[in-house]
Specification:
Elements (H helix, E strand, L loop, with lengths): L30 E4 L6 H11 L3 H17 L7 H9 L7 H20 L8 H9 L3 H15 L8 E4 L2
Antiparallel strand pairs: 1-2
Helix pairs in contact: 1-2, 1-6, 2-3, 4-5, 4-6, 5-6
Length: 163
């Protein structure tokens, strides 16, 4: 095992404990993930749930959690947990589905940050709109902001994350 000679592997040109300041640059891609599907907010909120007698609402909730994890691996994959909370939420008197509903806003905001957007998804607004029946509409509009960030990139194609 050999150790580097004095001056090798070290930055040259300055002495002291601090490195020279670097210039501010544009955001650099820090990772990659699969682009999310852009859905019609009205269709996801009203059209398909009416046609499928509410089943699509569960499918949407599961798919959104899966897509968020595929988009950014730092966002936990809680798709099965979210679906089970909706199916068996009566056991907890509806409290656990509400918690999962509020946590979805945090996951969407994290995806917006990863896309380089200012996070605009609010858990409070999502909770209030969810109580009166407009939560899916609000969350899908927020998710579409992330999908729109990448233009016409198809769903599932690899895109770069900037934050």
């Amino acid at each position: 095992m050999s150790y580097p000679q004095q001056g090798q592997g070290q930055q040259q040109g300055y002495q002291g404990g601090y490195a020279p300041a670097q210039q501010q640059q544009a955001p650099v891609a820090v990772g990659a993930g699969a682009n999310m599907k852009r859905r019609n907010p009205i269709g996801a909120w009203l059209g398909l749930p009416i046609i499928t007698f509410g089943i699509y609402g569960l499918v949407w909730f599961f798919k959104v959690h899966n897509e968020l994890h595929a988009y950014d691996r730092r966002i936990g994959n809680s798709a099965v947990n979210a679906l089970l909370s909706m199916l068996f939420g009566a056991i907890t008197l509806g409290i656990w589905p509400l918690i999962m509903w509020v946590k979805l806003a945090g996951r969407i905001a994290a995806a917006q940050r990863a896309a380089g957007l200012a996070p605009s998804c609010s858990a409070g607004v999502g909770f209030l709109l969810g109580i009166i029946g407009f939560g899916v509409l609000y969350y899908q509009i927020q998710l579409n902001k992330v999908a729109d960030r990448y233009g016409d990139t198809p769903a599932g194609q690899q895109v770069s994350l900037v934050a």
